[in-house]
Write a structure and sequence with these properties.
Length: 287
Amino acid sequence: MSENQNLLAEQRRALILDEVRRRGGVRVNELTRRLNVSDMTIRRDLDALARQGVIEKVHGGAVPVVEASTHEPGFEAKSALEPSAKEDIARAAAALAVPGSAIALSGGTTTFALARHLLDVPDLTVVTNSVRVADVFHDAQRPAGGRGARPGAATVVLTGGVRTPSDSLVGPVADRAIDSLHFDVLFLGVHGISAEAGLSTPNLAEAETNRRFVRAARRIVVVADHTKWGTVGLSSFAALEEVDTLVTDAGLAPELRAEIEEHLPGLVVAGDVPPAGTTGAPPVTGG
């Protein structure tokens, strides 16, 4: 971990969380030496991470919270986790969208962040099962002064279904709606991702709805911050090899990047500085 005293609190806490998960626990005195900050600063960081529910404080340090594979946090709880990483991912993923294409957005806080950036991509047709995502486009299209929707505004289709804790609509109604459609690209948020379990979620109905999304799309782009790697939910709905591109953040360890690249053709690490002479990843087209 970095010895930089000037790390922002959020960056420092991300490093601490990664260390806790990687090693299965850390001690306060180890963290003060590695991060070159005070004992009090580390304890405040641990308090903040414990309030988010991602670690458990123990005497002299912290251990990871082991969640049941059926545990599904609510939208607000998930929104508080890795906000900067999600914003970086959303910005990078939006650059992959092609004007005039038909795209699908699954539910989740990262796809919610992505939706805000997609407002600048003209003439999209957006299908989503996320109430939150649909609201982003709906609010942006409300006419000012009684005028009609702005030119190039996205056409949005919201599926029906039963609402989950993360404000996604799932179940047979959503499944039937998705089965009749075809997308150029699916931008897919996930609860967990691993080489063995692939893409997974704690919600059985959501797993089936996500399977339908995957089947209906010509290309699959997963948007997931680095903390999702290694997490496994109750139900897998796609293999890692079915994914065309994973857009993640710079917190992903180099050894994990190499492992991921063995399983899928495209990896975009948002926040990384591209090598000289490159322009970043190309847009994801329908072909």
